[in-house]
Amino acid sequence: MQVKIVDYGLSKASRQYYITYKVTGLNTDDQKMLQAEVEGNVELKGGQTIITNYYGQNHYPFGSQAAHHRLKDFIANEEIEMTVYLASILEDEFLQDKDQLKK
Predict the structure, then answer these.
(1) pLDDT in tens, the chain (103 residues)
(2) How many domains does the chain divide into?
(3) How much is the CA Rg of the chain, to the nearest whole Å?
(4) Which of 43, 52, 37 is nearest to 6 (CA)?
(5) Residue 27 burial class via C-beta count within 10 angstroms: exposed 0-12, middle 13-18, buried 19 and up
(6) What's this model's pTM, rounded to 2 decimal places?
(7) Element (H or E) spanning 37, and its range?
(8) Which domain holds residue 76?
(9) Element (H, E) at 33
């Protein structure tokens, strides 16, 4: 699984800050699992999972002065955090399925 930030900023329509992630390298079952479990707007497009999360100004990861000076570091950190979050969802589902098989 690979996670890449493809867009971020302030939405003119909703007036909320957002980050859009592109997730690749997942099979169809995993994509559907994430679509059902992940918070935010999740779309499946041509074998890719597109996730958009919205934030208030105080919670936007790229809103601080430090983020403006070290944006590449902040983007990399967000991609890692999203990867861990998604992997934990998929792992939880795998473990639940495995428990069901034992019964």
Answers:
(1) 999 999 999 999 989 999 999 999 999 999 999 999 999 999 999 889 999 999 998 999 999 999 989 999 999 999 999 999 999 999 876 656 555 555 5
(2) 1
(3) 15
(4) 52
(5) exposed
(6) 0.87
(7) helix 28-37
(8) 2-102
(9) helix 28-37
